Amino acid sequence: MAKCPVVTLADGNKIPALGLGTWKSAPSQVYEAVLEAIRVGYRHIDCALVYLNEPEVGRAIGHAIKEGLITREELFITTKCWNSFHSKQKVLECCNRSLRALGLDYIDLYLVHWPQAYKEGGDLFPKDENGHIQLADIDYLETWEGMEECKRKGLVRSIGVSNFNSEQITRLVKSCEIKPVMNQIECHPYLTQKKLIALCEDFQIKTTAYSPLGSPDRPWAPKGEKTLMEDDTVKTIAKKHGVTPAQVLIRYPIERGLISIPKSTNKARIAENFKVLNFSLDPADVEILNGLDKNFRVCVLDADVNSKYYPFNIPY
């Protein structure tokens, strides 16, 4: 079995460079997917409260530990604080909710899922009578105080953010007591994020690339859209290495020193995705893939565009 490279975070904790993403994984399928991933060799599982499948993920983790496939210490579990839990006390409530759902004593990496906040105390996606998301004016700096408290209480080992832009990262780093060690962002050859990643590196913040395949199965994809996996350049590089286009795309963030978290519930694909550890892309391949950048973002959450903390209103 290929050994997964690890990335050392600024706080000294180590994160496997390849993880299993669970966004869009149906609860009925994610139990088997996580179990299979652990059997294949994955040691990093990426979760979130809002994915509505943490209990099933937790059941699979518990099963794997009970069967002796793995120990808790060998696993790295990431999950995220949702937008409707952004006040300081609510962050702790959200964290404890995820811990209960996952059946864990601690979370390895806890992230603020988005910088913008929703109205608290009700639905995960609270809406007004016109069907618009009910935003809340809660500064993510307050949210971060709750994250720091989670770490101080030992509920989590590391804390970070997700979908934060350059200005938000800079402002947070300048004001916080415990610095974020991770920014999880959409990243693939059509959205290389070079400037944001470089800024994060300056602050000793690592980057996780979500949707490394460009999320071809996203519900809002335009009909007939040509996917990243169908890109001729990606296919040419795949042919050169004797691998699939998907494997090239999953390997690409790893070659850049990032964490890659492809999602799948298909057993064959879970195993195929893990085989990206069996080959490397040449530096020239990475440069060619970098050249495909067209600032094409698939995960925009544009219902939140009116929040003053919406992250995608500036270039990066």
TrEMBL record:
Listed GO biological process terms: monoatomic ion transmembrane transport
Marked site: Lowers pKa of active site Tyr: K80
NADP-dependent oxidoreductase domain location: 18-293
Binding locations of substrate: H113
Chain ranges passing through the membrane: none
Active-site residues annotated for this sequence: Y51 (proton donor)
SUPFAM superfamilies per UniProt: NAD(P)-linked oxidoreductase (SSF51430)
PROSITE patterns noted in UniProt: ALDOKETO_REDUCTASE_1, ALDOKETO_REDUCTASE_2, ALDOKETO_REDUCTASE_3
One of the record's GO molecular function terms: oxidoreductase activity
Keywords from the named record: Ion channel, Ion transport, NADP, Oxidoreductase, Transport
Family assignment from sequence similarity: Belongs to the aldo/keto reductase family.
PANTHER family per record: ALDO/KETO REDUCTASE
Protein known as: Putative voltage-gated shaker-like k+ channel subunit beta/kcnab ovary overexpressed
